[in-house]
Amino acid sequence: MASSILSDCSSCATSRLLPLRRALHPPPPRFRPSPGPAPSPRRPLLLAAAAPLPLLPRARRMAALSAAASSADPATVLADASAKIIDGKLVAKQIREEVGVEIARMKDATGVVPGLAVILVGSRKVSQTYVRNKKKACEAVGIKSYEVNLPEDASEYEVIKHIATFNDDPSVHGILVQLPLPRHMNDENILNAVSIEKDVDGFHPVNIGRLAMQGRDPFFVPCTPKGCMELLHRSGVEINGKRAVVIGRSNIVGTPAALLLQKANATVSIVHSKTKNPEEITRQADIIIAAVGVANLVRGSWIKPGAAIIDVGINPVDDPASPRGYRLVGDVCFDEASKVAGAITPVPGGVGPMTIAMLLSNTLDSAKRIHKFK
Amino acid sequence: MASSILSDCSSCATSRLLPLRRALHPPPPRFRPSPGPAPSPRRPLLLAAAAPLPLLPRARRMAALSAAASSADPATVLADASAKIIDGKLVAKQIREEVGVEIARMKDATGVVPGLAVILVGSRKVSQTYVRNKKKACEAVGIKSYEVNLPEDASEYEVIKHIATFNDDPSVHGILVQLPLPRHMNDENILNAVSIEKDVDGFHPVNIGRLAMQGRDPFFVPCTPKGCMELLHRSGVEINGKRAVVIGRSNIVGTPAALLLQKANATVSIVHSKTKNPEEITRQADIIIAAVGVANLVRGSWIKPGAAIIDVGINPVDDPASPRGYRLVGDVCFDEASKVAGAITPVPGGVGPMTIAMLLSNTLDSAKRIHKFK
Q1: How confident is the model at residue A10 (pLDDT cuts 50, 70, 90)?
Q2: CA distance B176 to B164
Q3: Catalytic: A8?
Q4: Which of A122-131, A275-284, B12-21, B288-297 comes out lowest in average pLDDT?
Q5: In A, which residues are within 8 Å of B210 by CB distance?
Q6: Residue A172 CB neighbour total at 10 angstroms
Q7: Residue B2 confidence (pLDDT) above 70
Q8: Shortest CA distance to B284 belongs to which of A271, A246, A306?
Q9: Which Pfam families does its entry note (chains A, B) (predicted)?
Q10: pLDDT, averaged across chain B
C-alpha cells in the first residue's frame, strides 16, 4: 500500500493515515505536489529558548527562542539551515508551567480547582492514548479531570445526557468530547450539546461565529490554531499588516487559524483543494500555516525567503529504517523549507505539543471566567 | 466640509457619510487611494437582462444579462466601456416576482402567509424610510408585515421584550431590528435575542459560525452579501477555483461575503485597513467584492482585465450639479473600472436593490422551513 520513503520531500512518499490525521483534517485535498528534489541527508539545527517566556507575551522573542540548542529528543534535528526553529515542545512546557502557577494562585485565593471532563466513546487505542495524555497533563498542572467512558454502541442520547450532567456540574469548567465519534453518532448534535461556556475545544458555531466577527470575542479559541498563534507570538513574528496564507480549511484548524490571523490584522488568503495556483499564492505570504494533511506538500519553491512557517500536519510516511516502520512528517518539506524560511516549526515537536497546553490554558480561562477571578 | 467633485474618481472627492454608510461599514479604513486621473466624461452603457431569469440558477447568464439596454433611470449610464453591467435593479425585480409566485403557491397549498416583524427604535428619517420601503416590498409579494415603533429613549429591556413576543408568535417567520440602534443600547444583546430560526438578517453569531464552517449551513445568510452572490451567480460568473478579493471586513457585508465566496470554493483574500498593498492583491482577483465605504477607492489599475466586480459601497459625494447637492458613488471608480473589468455593478442600481429582495427571500425560506413546505 505504501512505498518506502527516499527523503522527507520525495514526491513518491505515500503517507499512511493515522486516526489523528482523520480527526484533524477533512476529506483529502487534491493538490499535486511538484516533483521532488534529490534526497538531502542534512537537516537544520533545532534551536530552543534559553529561558522561560512569560504567558502570552507579544514582543519579539525569536532571539530568546534561538539562544540555545536542545538535547537529543524526537524533535531534535541537525545541521546547517538558516531558519530559526520554533520549538513547540519547549514553548508548550513553559505554558504548562505558567498555567500551573496560575491554577495554584487561583486555588489559594478562592479554593476553586479547575475541572475538565472528557467523554470517550468506544475503545480506539489512539483515542485512549490521547485521553490518557490529557488526563496526565491535567494532573501535572493541578486541573481535576473527570472521565466518562462509554461503549462503542452507546447511543447519542447517552452521550448528550452525560454532557448535560457536566454542563450543570459547577466543579466542571471544561467539557471535551474525544473525536472521532462512532459513525452512528451525529458529531454536530453532540458538540452543540456542550454549553458554550464550557466548550474548551471552541468548536461550537457560536464560538466560530464570534471568532469571525469584528468586535466580538469567542469564549474559547480552538486549541490547535490557538497554539499556532501562540507559537507565532512567542517567536516574535509580527502579524499586523503581514500577508498570511493558511493551507487547508478544516473547521478545527484551517478556518479558525485564518480567522485568528485576520483578527490580528494580517491580510489572509486561504488555500484549499480547489485553489488552482497554491504555490504562487503561498509564495506571497510572510506567514504560512499549513494544515492540510498532505505529507511534504509545501516545497521550498512555495516559500518567500524569511517567511514564518507553522506546520500543523502530522503525516506518517513509511520508513523501513524506523523501528515502527514509519515516521512522522509535516505538510511542509522541512529540508527545503528550513533553507528558505525565517522561522519554522519541526514535526514532531512543533504544533503537536501545543494542543494539550492550550486545552489546559482554555480550562484555566474558563474557571477564571466562571468564578470571576483575575 | 466637503469639496466639490470633479469626477467620479477624483482623489479629492470627499464623501459625506449618510447613516446607511455608518450602518453598513465599520470604522473608516486607512486606505490611501492613488492619485486620480484626468476626469472622464464618458461612461459605459448599462446592459440589462432581456428576459426574467429563474430563481437561484447557477448557469452562465451573462449573455442574457447583456441582451438589452435599460431605459433612462438613475442607474442608467452611457457610452463605450467593455464591461458588462450587472443590473441589480432588474435582478432584484425578478427575485421579488419569483418570491411572490412562491408565496402564492405556499398560501394555496397550506394557507400559511409568511410574516416579517420589523422593530424600529427612534425617529431617524432614513431608518423610517428603510422600514417603509421594506413594508411596501413585503406587501407587494404577499408577506404580512408587523411593525413596532419605540421611542428613542426606550430601554433595551423593552426592545428585547418585543423580540421575545415575536419569537413566540407563529405568524411571524422573520424578525428584523432596524439598525443603527440608539447609543444607550447594546446591539449585541439585542441582536442575540432574536431566535436564530427567525434571524432573517443572519447576524447571529451562530449563523456566522455556521457560514464559516465546512459541512454546516447557516439558517440565514445576511441579505447584502447574499445579494452579491446572487448577482454573481445570475451573471454567470464562475466562482469555483477562482481568486476572489473582498475589500472590507464588516460583520454584515465583508466577512460574510468572504465566507460565502469560500463556501463556493473561491480562493479568498480579505483586504482591509491594515493591508499594506491592497492594489497589488486586488489586481490578482478574478472576482472583487468592494464593501469598505470609501468613495472610488478601487481604481482601474487595481483591476485584473476581465474581473467581475460587485460594488457594495454607497457613498454620497458633493455634486453642485445635482438638485440634492450630492450624488451617490461606489467604492469602485466606475469610469475606470468599467474599461478593464469583465462585469461590474453600477451604483446606484447594483447591490442596493438586492438587499430588500434577499430579505423577502429569507423570510419566505423561513416560513417554508418552519412549515416544512417545499
Answers
A1: low
A2: 12
A3: no
A4: B12-21
A5: 205, 209
A6: 23
A7: no
A8: A271
A9: THF_DHG_CYH, THF_DHG_CYH_C
A10: 84
Q: Are A311 and A347 in contact (CB under 8 A)?
A: yes
- CB–CB of B212 and A215 under 8 A? no
3-state class of A120 per DSSP? Answer: strand
**pLDDT value of residue A81:** 57
Which one-letter amino acid corresponds to residue B322? S
Chain A: closest CA distance from residue B348 (Å): 27
For A214, the closest of B209, B213, B250 (CB atoms) is B250
Adjacent-strand bridge partners of A28: none
How much is the average pLDDT of A161-190? Answer: 96
Q: Which residues of A touch B215 (CB under 8 A)?
A: 26, 251
Per-residue pLDDT tens digits for A238-254: 999 999 999 999 999 99
Average pLDDT over residues A290-301: 98
Cis amide prior to B348 (ω within 30 degrees): yes
ipTM over 0.90: no
Pick the residue of A213, A217, A279, A284 with the most B CBs within 10 A to test the interface with B by mutation: A213
Q: What does the block give as the cell for A261? A: 490571523
Q: How far is B244 from chain A (nearest CA, A)?
A: 9
In the prediction, which pLDDT does A209 show?
97
Q: Identify whether B201 is a catalytic site residue.
A: yes
Closest Cα of chain A to B243: distance in Å? 8
| Beta-bridge partners for B344 | B85, B309
First-to-final CA distance of chain A: 54
Q: Comparing C-alpha atoms, which of B117, B236, B237, B231 is closest to residue B178?
A: B117
The arithmetic mean of pLDDT across residues B202-208, rounded, is 94
CA B65 and chain centroid, separation: 19
Evaluate whether A34 touches A299 at the Cβ level (below 8 Å): yes
**The pLDDT of residue B20:** 32
Q: Is A120 on the interface with B (CB under 8 A)?
A: no
Q: Which residue of A has its CA nearest to B213?
A: A251
CA distance A301 to A180: 35
Residues of A in contact with B249 (CB under 8 A): 214, 262
Report the chain B residue with the minimal C-alpha distance to residue A202.
B209
Segment among A128-142, B60-74, B252-266 with least mean pLDDT: B60-74
Domains and CATH numbers, chain B: 19-88+221-355 (3.40.50.720)
* B207–A212 CB contact, under 8 Å: no
Task: Please give the average per-residue pLDDT across A298-315, as a whole number.
Answer: 98
What do you get for the CA distance between the two ends of chain B, in Å?
Answer: 54
How many angstroms separate the Cα of B260 from the Cα of each of B89, B197, B229, B265, B373? Answer: 22, 20, 8, 9, 25
Closest C-alpha to B340, from B302, B309, B305: B305
A189 shares contact with chain B (CB less than 8 Å):
no
- pLDDT beyond 60 at A30: no
Grade residue A181 by pLDDT with cuts at 50, 70 and 90. very high
| CB contact at 8 A, B115 and B171 | yes
- The strand pairing partners of A38, in sequence order, are none
- Altogether, the residues listed in chain A come to a count of 374
Burial class of A265 by CB neighbour count within 10 A (0 to 12, 13 to 18, 19+): middle
Tens of pLDDT, residues A103-124: 999 999 999 999 999 999 999 9
Cβ-defined contact of B241 to A212 (cutoff 8 Å): no
- A134 is a catalytic site residue: yes
**Is B274 within 8 Å of chain A by CB?**
yes
